[in-house]
Structure formats: structure tokens, C-alpha cells
Amino acid sequence: MVKKVVIVGGGIAGIYVLRNLLARREEVEDGLDLTLIKRERSGWVSTCGLPFALRGWYEIKRTEINEPKFFLDQGVDFRTETEVTRLNLDDRAITLGTGEELSYDYLVIATGRKPSVPDAVLKSELEGIYTFNNELDAEKIEASIAGAKYAFVRGRGIIGLQAAVAFATRGLKTTVLGGPPSLLPSSLDPDMGEMVKKWLEEKHGIRFILERKEITGVKGDGGRVRAVIVGEGEEIPADVVVIARGMKPNVELALDAGIETGESGGIVTDRALHVKRGRSYLREVFSLGDCTEVIDGVTHRPRLSQLASTVVVQAKVIADNIISDIKAQPSLYSICEPCLSPTVAEIGGLLVGSVGLTTEGATRAGIKTLSGVATKLVKARYFPGAKPLTLKLLFDAYTHKLIGAQMVGESTVAERVNEMELAIRAGMTAEEMRNTERCYDPSLSLLIDVTIDATEKAIGITPVY
Ligand SMILES: Cc1cc2nc3c(=O)[nH]c(=O)nc-3n(C[C@H](O)[C@H](O)[C@H](O)COP(=O)(O)OP(=O)(O)OC[C@H]3O[C@@H](n4cnc5c(N)ncnc54)[C@H](O)[C@@H]3O)c2cc1C
Predict the structure, then answer these.
(1) Alpha carbon of residue 66 to chain centroid
(2) Domain range summary for the chain, segments of one domain joined by +
(3) Are residues 304 and 3 in contact, defined by beta-carbon separation less than 8 angstroms?
(4) Positions of the chain with pLDDT lower than 50, given as ranges
(5) In this predicted structure, what is the pLDDT of residue 122?
(6) Residue 13 alpha carbon, nearest atom of ligand 1
(7) For the purposes of burial, counting CB atoms within 10 Å of the CB of 38, is it exposed (0-12), middle (13-18) or buried (19 or more)?
(8) Surface-to-core class of residue 223, CB atoms within 10 Å of its CB (0-12 exposed, 13-18 middle, 19+ buried)
(9) Cα–Cα distance for residue pair 157/348, rounded to 1 Å
(10) CA 268 to CA 313: how far, in whole Å?
(11) Does the structural domain 3-114+248-332 have CATH classification 2.60.40.10?
(12) What is the spatial distance between Cα 180 and Cα 154, in angstroms, rounded to a whole number?
């Protein structure tokens, strides 16, 4: 009998489960009946490409890789601008806003995230204040840039900073509000975050307010925002305001259905991504993406990841497990590896990368660290255009195993983040990292790379310069 798979959510998480199942549909003898439901009117959108569209590098429309028709033509019941109002797990059905019920053999929950909006902003009906969560938000922000002189961003994470760079690049005087002590606190220690702040101040003229202050009011005229009030009454001009602070998992539907959420606020799953209700994990209901809790690869504690790079792995695991279950073939079953959340971002010409724990994350988990920071060119000093990179490595003080890496530079960041991820997964110690050979060509690398210097500093050995 044809098996029905219903996917709730058409962000990158829902779309990647669909793409995996479409690619593997032929493996299921009786076929798969695939349904995807989402609120937006789009098909498959690369959310990660939106900040660069705002910078003017390409049109927002270009981030829609496939329109809904692409999936409809392949026989998918691809429903846009549609709301799911209930998950009826006992009946194996979901209810839509129209009252229609759809039954399923397998249900995938991919309901994503929602930004936390300060109360003063929630109450305001002024035009010009937006979250930055999807292409609809990007379109509204884009439209409001024309004629605007001042921008205000609430949030010092990657999305907030990329939005700030977009505004500054397009000539808006831009202010960013976030907590102390520095930028990108979930990826970088304050000393590394400070480098990013300095770059954005000097190269892009962005002003930062990094204090424990919140937006306490907004002012407007003609129905449009003109200023935000911060803290006790500092008024900052703003013709466009973006709220990009802490994204929360969107779990209302799951909670109403009795599905368990964890200490991070995300949906709890086993490593095969089955959700938990009561004392059992449900064989036919899965969850992934920004609404879902992951297990940290160093601390083994639950947390959120909220990265597209996490999602693509989870989507494969869910497709494996649906197909394994239908075919009754345990050999196809798979599980997610614990999460290290390798992260890279281009922020106004500066590349920022991280993987594993920060010092604060390690302290919270009760891990004492040895750390080493080094700055070096990424290729031979006599090579024109050689740029410096600063690397900070964190090792467990007891085992000397690598547990975190952070870097800021103008090149070679993405590949280094992936290299450090593998080193953490392999459980490499500082001593092993120091005494492992690295490839060399003066036009591409240094004979003694910055990794070796940072490692030696962490274990108290003087590097050879
Ligand atoms: C601007 C921006 C830039 C980013 N850049 C990067 C990057 O460079 N690298 C990276 O790794 N990650 C990046 N991310 C994060 C990454 O995009 C997300 O982790 C990834 O998109 C996974 O999202 P998701 O599908 O879980 O959630 P979402 O994108 O939030 O999608 C949730 C979906 O669920 C639907 N939905 C929710 N509730 C209902 C309901 N009741 N009825 C119907 N539909 C519902 C929504 O309509 C939506 O389609 C970025 C995120 C943003 C916002």
C-alpha cells in the first residue's frame, strides 16, 4: 500500500526531508504519497542567502531555488499559504485552518523558529519594524530601505550583524543593540568578538550599544517608525528597525499534541529523530530543524543548533528511517551524530568561524580549559595579498582534547572550521595536533600554520616564528 508522509513546515528542514524522499521514492515498491504544508507562498528558499540579497548582491527572488510548481509537477501535494492548526497523533491525522483533515503514515514536524520581540515593539503598529526570519521579512525590509537614513538592529548574532552590514553598505547610519560584553556570544569569546566589533565600527561605521538594555518604546510619524527608545530614554533615530535577537523554537503545535520539549525549549527526540510523547518515542513521528533540540557533541547536554548545516544531516536521517521502516530493513536505519554546530559567516568582508564550545559554554558545563590564541598570515609573507587570521583553540584542561575553535580572518575560514570539527570528533589532543604534519605550498599555506602556534600556546610551549 502507498505510504503517506506529511511534512509540516516548508523551511529548509521540511524541504530537505521532501527532497531526500523524492530522490529515493523509487526505493519504495508501492510508492510514497508526499504532502508538505507551509505558511509562506514560496517553494524552496535559501534563507541563508537573504542577508546578501539585502546587501544588493542579487535580488531576493533569486533565493527561491524552486517554485511550488517544481514540486507539484512531481506529484507532491505542496500546499502554500496554509496553516496547520492541530496534530491529532492518536488518529494519525493533522487538521488544517480550513478544517480539512489529512491522514498520515509518517508525520514530520519542521515548524522552525520564531524571533523573540520586545514588548514595546509588539505593541507598536508602526510601519518599518520587522523581524528577519524569511523571504517575506526580507522583502519588507528591502522595501523600507528606499528613502531611509537610519537603521536600528536589535540582536548581535550573525543575522543581526549581517542585516546591519546590509544597511550600512546601502548608506544608512546604523546602530546595533545587544547585551554585553561583545558580539556573537554563542560562537566567540569576548576577545574574538571584540575583533569583529572593531572591524564593523572601522570599516562600516556601525555604532554598537552592548549593554543590558532593551527597547522600551518606539516613536513614529505618519504611521512610520522614526526612532527607538533604548533603556531609560535614549532616543535613537530609526527609519527601519530589525528585530533579530534570540530565535525560539516554534513548538506550540507539538506541545498541544502532548509531544515533549526539553530544557532548551526545543522538541525532544531520540538520535533517530523520533519525537517523545509520555514515556515513548513515536515510531511514525519525527522532528527536525530549528524547532528541535540536539545533543551537544562535547558536553552531551541538550541545546539548540538552528543551522541549515545541522538540518541537512537530520533530513537524511529522517528519510533513512522512514524508508527503513516501510521496507522493514533495519540496515537502512540511521542516527544523528552528536552536534558540534560548525559555523561560518561573512560579515562585511570579515570571515568568522567557530565549532564546539566557547569558554563560557565550557564553564557552564563545568569543563576547565586551556586556551591558545595566535595571529598569523595564511600563506608565505613574501606572497602578495597574504592576509592574517586569528585562531583561538580551547582544550579540555584534564584530557588536553580539543573542545572548541574560533577564528576571525579574511580567508581560509570555512575549511578550517570543518578541519577543527573533525579534530574534535576524533578526540585529538593538543599534543597530537601539534605533532601532526600539514600540507605546504608558500602560495597556499605556511610551513608552520597558525593552528600549531595556537596549540603550542595553549599547552605552554613557545611557538617558533
Ligand atoms: C536570515 C537568515 C540567515 C541564515 N543564514 C544561515 C547560514 O548562513 N548558515 C546556516 O547554517 N544557517 C543559517 N540560518 C539558519 C537556517 O536558515 C535555519 O537553521 C534553517 O533554515 C532551518 O529552518 P527550519 O526549516 O527548521 O525553520 P523555518 O525556516 O523557520 O521554517 C519553518 C516552516 O514551518 C512553517 N510552519 C510553522 N508553523 C506552521 C503551521 N502551524 N502551519 C503551517 N506551516 C507552519 C513555516 O511556514 C515555515 O515554512 C539563517 C537563518 C536566517 C533567518
Answers:
(1) 21
(2) 3-114+248-332, 117-245, 357-458
(3) no
(4) none
(5) 85
(6) 25
(7) buried
(8) exposed
(9) 14
(10) 17
(11) no
(12) 13
Full-model pTM: 0.96
Q: Are 98 and 63 in contact (CB under 8 A)?
A: no
Residue from 45, 48, 87 whose mutation best tests the ligand 1 pocket (most atoms within 8 A of CB): 48
User: What pLDDT sits at residue 120?
Assistant: 87
Residue of 12, 94, 165, 187 with the most ligand 1 atoms within 8 Å of its CB, for mutation? 12
251 Cβ closer than 6 Å to some ligand 1 atom: no
SS (H, E, C) 92-118: CEEEECCCCEEECCEEEECCCEEECCC
Look at the chain and count its residues: 465
Residue 203: in which H helix or E strand, if any? helix 190-204
- How far apart CA 445 and CA 440 sit, in angstroms, is 6
| Type and span of the H or E element at 23 | helix 12-23
Which architecture characterizes domain 357-458 according to CATH?
2-Layer Sandwich (3.30)
C-alpha grid cell for residue 439? 600540507
